[in-house]
Amino acid sequence: MKQTLILIFLFLFGLNAKADYGYMSLSALVCEADFGAIGTIVKLDKSYFYLKVEKYVLSKLEFDTLKIQKFESWSCGQRYGKYEVGQKELVFFRKSNYVIDDYDLLGYGAGGEFELPIKGDSIFYNYSYGKLKSYSLNEFLYALKDFNSLKQNTKETSISINKEEQDLFSSKSNLHKLFIECRKRNYEGEFEVPTNGFISNLEKSHLYQDYENKVYVYGFNMDSIYLSVDDAEVWKTETYFIVKPKDAWTRRWLNVYSTNDKNKSKVLYNQLFEILELPEPRIYFGSYYRDTIYGSYEAIPRTAHYLDDMHEDEFLKYELLSYSYTIMSNNSKETFKVKSSRGTLELHDRLRKMNPGDQINISDVYVLYPNQTVRQIKGRTVIVGNRQ
């Protein structure tokens, strides 16, 4: 978590820190991007650039002009040049969220990798602090078109393609080979525990309602047992079980049976679990939950279920979707509508000017819960302190 906060700190506020940012490879950028469009910048404001779309090259949206958050250069990441109307580029981007209509369009990478300028018959990739590598525009678009078709055919980049298909794709050109690299890494057969679950072992005494709780059963061969839980969906993955209870504020027995015991005649092991509703998360600033912050680097809010004032529950993932950010200073009040976790350049500039005694209020807060439902939660007020 500390590393994440440091990266956010450096990226948002552009401090003069000496650090090496690991730039995204072009392969990773193409693989991760949800959308790609070629266009010309026709308008600029404090926080956004407006791209008049010539054509979409990776999925598409029903917009002919895209409002995309600007990249802010910092000590370890630099845009290829100053923003100017008339710049033609290919932009790889995503929505800040996919569950409500209130969202921003965001680029990828903390080094400005997502904007690829186009000049003549060449396209350029920002691979290291403003350093550009050129590619033939026509060859780039040809390979990208094939890769987009591959993504659409497999629906999601996590779906496997066999080695023969990979080799055939790679043989078409060097760019084809480059683009397919990240997909090859996805299909090495490594098992990863999904992040959208709560890891529960036999020392935990509760499960969450309408949520895919992970349950590890120790002391048994996974292939020789199954679970039974009343009023809950239960299924097995490679190394653990998923238990998704329907009702909350009740107790349920988790029973372990042999796979051959279809009639449930002998319970091998059981344990009683409390079924709880997913807790409402809290808004916090910096690394801890407290009512005073001490600088702009702590001023961007996050949300999590906090077990106490210092420790968040790392297994329950909440995503802050949108909120209103109000700064009250002396007799003035300024409000910013925020649609992404990173905020906007306009907000960042204002935060750098905060003074001790200023009050920050977060309201109209919408959060994506771990079970993928969207809920509005309570707001929060903190004071800017004076660290002496």
Question: Can you offer a commentary on this structure?
Answer:
This protein has 388 residues and is of the alpha+beta class. The protein folds into 3 domains: 2-148, OB fold (Dihydrolipoamide Acetyltransferase, E2P), CATH 2.40.50; 198-276, Immunoglobulin-like (Sandwich), CATH 2.60.40.1080; 284-384, no CATH class. The chain is 17% helix and 37% strand. It has helices at residues 2-13, 26-32, 137-154, 163-170, 174-186, 345-351; strands spanning 35-44, 48-58, 65-69, 88-95, 105-107, 115-119, 122-128, 131-136, 198-200, 206-208, 213-215, 225-229, 232-236, 241-245, 250-258, 269-276, 282-285, 292-293, 301-304, 319-329, 332-338, 359-368, 374-377, 380-384. Strands 1, 2, 3, 4, 5, 6, 7 and 8 form an 8-stranded antiparallel sheet that branches. Strands 18, 20, 21, 22, 23 and 24 form a 6-stranded mixed sheet that branches. The radius of gyration is 24 Å and the shape is flat. It starts with a helix and ends with a strand. Mean pLDDT is 85; it is low at 1-19 and 184-203.
Number of helical elements: 6
- Helices and strands: which structural class? alpha+beta
Q: Would you tell me the overall average pLDDT?
A: 85
Run of helices and strands: HHEEEEEEEEHHHEEEEEEEEEEEEEHEEE
- Beta-strand level of the residues, as a percent range? 35-45%
What would you say the CATH architecture of the largest domain is? Beta Barrel
Largest sheet: 8 strands, antiparallel
Number of separate domains: 3
Oligomer classification = single chain
What's the shape?
flat
Distance between the termini: 26 Å
According to CATH, what is the topology of the largest domain?
Answer: OB fold (Dihydrolipoamide Acetyltransferase, E2P)
Query: How many beta-strand runs?
Result: 24
Gyration radius from CA atoms, angstroms:
24 Å
